[in-house]
Design a protein that fits this description.
Helices cover 18% and strands 24% of the residues. It is α+β, with helices and mostly antiparallel strands. Strands 1, 2, 3, 4 and 5 form a five-stranded antiparallel sheet that branches. The chain has a two-stranded parallel ribbon with strand order 6-7. It is globular and about 60 Å long.
């Protein structure tokens, strides 16, 4: 194992700006509320057409999954290494956002199975961290159990990934697969009167790939996300905010943002108001 893995804990240093330490995740999370404009339907709180869950939203034109671009050599990294890094990034994103057991039941075993080396060690060691912002449970995307069920089996995705040569704060060169996606989950509140919404997640960040000997690379996921509409609660999971509910926790503030265009927001509020999804 190269000396860098035994020197300063590169995982913590690398994740600090985006995932752990430095109060990053709460600065980036958009735990927001929907536009309260009236809608002309019998039950205004039932926002999603069960036969066409994305109708009337920008997600109508989105695709499915996280397609990878054609690989080319980047800096000192070969085409084969870039190709593998794209595929591994795709696997990580699918495990986080498309695995229904993870999203709705907090079963993150698929994600855990994709982590190796110090990334896996960091993740397991910090699952019980009492510091909310240092806890590694920010890495997966989990809804609060019992608060939502999927409408259909389709999740719409729009965005891109690209590979770049990068250097971290410790001076180590690595391959960065930069990711930016909007992910849309149509969900309903379980049981009782039909109530539904579309959860829109804006995902930003990168997966850093470090040489771990020979041609092998070790992946370090580093990302942040905005999610809307959800309650502004200090919790590791996201609790959907449905149209017939009053917001719990921190009150939303500021002008309403478009949840499908959060990449244009330079300084998002930790609990900003959003338009209808």
């Amino acid at each position: 194992m190269p000396p860098r893995f035994t020197a300063v804990p590169w995982m913590a240093a690398l994740l600090c700006p985006i995932l752990v330490g430095c109060a990053p995740v709460q600065d980036f999370l958009d735990r927001s509320v929907p536009d309260l404009e009236s809608v002309s339907q019998l039950n205004p709180a039932d926002r999603v057409d069960r036969d066409d869950p994305f109708a009337g939203s920008p997600a109508e034109d989105y695709g499915e999954g996280f397609p990878v671009p054609e690989a080319e050599a980047v800096g000192s990294f070969t085409r084969e290494q870039v190709e593998w890094s794209y595929a591994h990034t795709q696997e990580l994103l699918e495990a986080v956002y498309l695995n229904q057991d993870a999203v709705f039941d907090e079963d993150n075993s698929e994600l855990t199975g994709l982590l190796t080396g110090q990334a896996l060690e960091w993740y397991l060691d910090n699952l019980g961290n009492e510091d909310f912002e240092l806890n590694s449970r920010h890495l997966p995307f989990n809804l609060t159990p019992g608060t939502a069920e999927p409408i259909g089996d389709e999740v719409r995705v729009d965005g891109w990934m690209r590979a770049e040569a990068a250097r971290d704060d410790q001076g180590w060169d690595y391959l960065s697969v930069v990711t930016e996606y909007t992910i849309v989950h149509p969900v309903a509140r379980p049981g009782g009167h039909p109530v539904s919404t579309r959860l829109v997640t804006s995902h930003f960040g990168e997966v850093g790939f470090y040489e771990a000997g020979g041609q092998e690379l070790e992946a370090a996921p580093m990302w942040a996300r905005f999610v809307a509409p959800v309650h502004c609660l200090e919790e590791y999971t996201f609790t959907p905010l449905y149209e017939d509910e009053q917001p719990r926790g921190e009150r939303p503030r500021g002008l309403r943002e478009d949840p499908y265009e959060m990449e244009n927001t330079e300084a998002p509020d930790s609990c900003g108001a959003v338009k209808d999804t």
